[in-house]
């Protein structure tokens, strides 16, 4: 979890600062897709690690005399959490991109990093939102 948080602090936070200062002129679709999918992957991984730690601590407190988590099993749980986070964050890499928006000035269009223009009028962003709500609810 410390490695994931370190990557978030070194890669995602500077990207977020760039995103905040360049809201209307985000450079490329691939940069946006990569940034948002990696961001989702790392944040979901970190959340799943916290849930796993809470479950393991609960099991250790409630069943102190039973078999505890071994280092091999802990590595498996961490790997499973990262795999689940990658699978859950794949739709972000597909759906996100450059979204065009008309500004206050005529004939000037701004581009920012959100749902790609090709997916805005489809059902896929809504399904992605419901999927994430379902995942976080459980």
From TrEMBL:
Regions crossing the membrane: 34-56, 76-95
Topology of the protein relative to the lipid bilayer: Multi-pass membrane protein
Ribosomal protein found in the keyword field: no
Molecular function GO terms recorded: G protein-coupled receptor activity
Domain of life: Eukaryota
InterPro entries assigned: GPCR_opsins, GPCR_Rhodpsn, GPCR_Rhodpsn_7TM
Domain annotation G-protein coupled receptors family 1 profile: ranges: 1-138
PANTHER family for this protein: OPSIN (PTHR24240)
Protein name: G-protein coupled receptors family 1 profile domain-containing protein
Species of origin: Biomphalaria glabrata (Bloodfluke planorb)
């Amino acid at each position: 979890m410390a490695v994931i948080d370190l990557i978030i602090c070194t890669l995602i936070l500077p990207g977020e600062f760039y995103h905040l200062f360049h809201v209307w002129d985000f450079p490329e679709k691939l940069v946006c897709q990569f940034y948002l999918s990696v961001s989702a992957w790392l944040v979901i991984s970190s959340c799943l690690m916290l849930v796993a730690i809470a479950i393991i601590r609960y099991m250790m407190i409630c069943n102190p005399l039973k078999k505890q988590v071994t280092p091999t099993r802990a590595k498996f749980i961490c790997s499973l959490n990262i795999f689940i986070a990658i699978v859950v964050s794949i739709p972000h890499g597909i759906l996100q991109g450059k979204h065009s928006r008309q500004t206050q000035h005529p004939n000037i269009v701004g581009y920012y990093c959100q749902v790609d223009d090709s997916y805005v009028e489809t059902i896929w962003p809504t399904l992605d939102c419901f999927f994430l709500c379902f995942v976080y609810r459980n």
